[in-house]
Structures are given as structure tokens and as C-alpha cells.
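U., I forgot to send this yesterday:
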Amino acid sequence: MFDQCVIDLFMNPFKGVPGEERYSGCFVIIVSVFVTCLITANVTAVKLIQVFGFILPAAIFIFPLSYITGDVLAEVYGYRQTRKVIWLGFCCNFIVVAFIWIGQIMPPAVFWDGQAAYERILGYTRRLLGASFMAYLVGEFANAYVLAKMKIATQGRWLWLRTIGSTVVGQGLDSAIFIVFAFAGTIPLRGLAAAAVTQWLAKTIYEAALTPVTYMVVKFLKRKEGVDVYDHETQFNPFSFSK
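Result:
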């Protein structure tokens, strides 16, 4: 069952969509970039950096790229395919976290002195993991939903409005959920709000600045793939995979 789902996702991403190609190398590339950005962001987020006086996670430079690729997926291939990719990213991230944890609990070699560093950099508390997973799912699904609905409402015009509008919603929810669930009770309410707003603004501005890149990728894919999906008949339930 799982093997067949993987085959359907990568080898036949347009199954059930009349008139579309049954195989897309570009689709596989976009999915790979999306998952890579997600996992890299989760690994690098442990380091805090200071940019223009603001304290931000190092993942600030790559995490917005997962939203950009998410925008590209939803704009070109539609919400139905994006939903599969979001869940695929979740599963891949879970596998990475699980095996990092297994590596952590395994007894180190007697001559290896990096156990403390390993645990500090790669180790996650259950609270942080829960907050991260929840924020990812809510943020990505909100981003894809808003973009798909706005595409229908605008009849495919004003791509910049869709990408930025969906980012404002998705990144806002992602930042708020993660900060609140990860740090509530450990830092003052004002600090929580400041951290959430700072991350939200930084990610949104970053992604908005890359709008010309999004335009180029979307234009290339639509021409190359010959596809431009509108989700008129799509069920937007995140847990539905049938339609």
C-alpha cells in the first residue's frame, strides 16, 4: 500500500487529472527541493543569529524557500498534489527526527567525545518537536489553501497577490503556533508576541522579495508542463487524498 502511494506520487502525479501528463521530472525536482528545504530548516533552526539587531534562527534563510516551492506547487499543480507533498514532507521529517533520536540514545564509542554536542545540536525536546510539526502542517496547508482559493477568485491573475497573501497567512500561523506552543510559560507574553511577529515579518519580507524568482519558475513550469490547475472540484480537506 505504502509503496503504491509513493509510486503514484512520483511516477504518476497527475493520475486522475484528465488530459495531463502521467510523468513529470519537473514535479519530482520541485518536490525534492521542498523536502530538502524543510529538513535543512529544521536542522539549522537550533542556531540563533543576530541580523540588524534582531535575534532569529539560522533557518530564516532557507525555511521561506519551502513556502516558495509550496506556492509553486499549488499554483502550477494544484492543491490536490500539494497536499500529498506536504504530507510527504511531514513523513520525511519524521524519519529524520526518529533516526537522529536513535543515534542519540545509542551508546557512543569509548573514544568519541561528541555526545554532548550531538545532543545539544541535534536533540529535540518533545515539546519543540510537537510545536514544530503542528506549525508546519497548519502553516503549509493554510498557505496552499489560500493560494488555491485566491487563484480561483482572481481567475489566475495577479500571481504576486496570491503568493504574498498566502504567505502572510501561512507564515503568520506557522510562527504564532510554533512560538506559543514551544515557549509559552518560559518567556513573558510580550516576548512571545515579539518573537512571533519578528519571525513572521522577516519570513514574509524575504519571500516577497523573491517574488520575481517565483514568477520565473511558475512561468517556466506552466510552459514546460503544459499544465495550470484550478481547484474548482478539489476537496480541501487536508486528510482527503481521493479528490
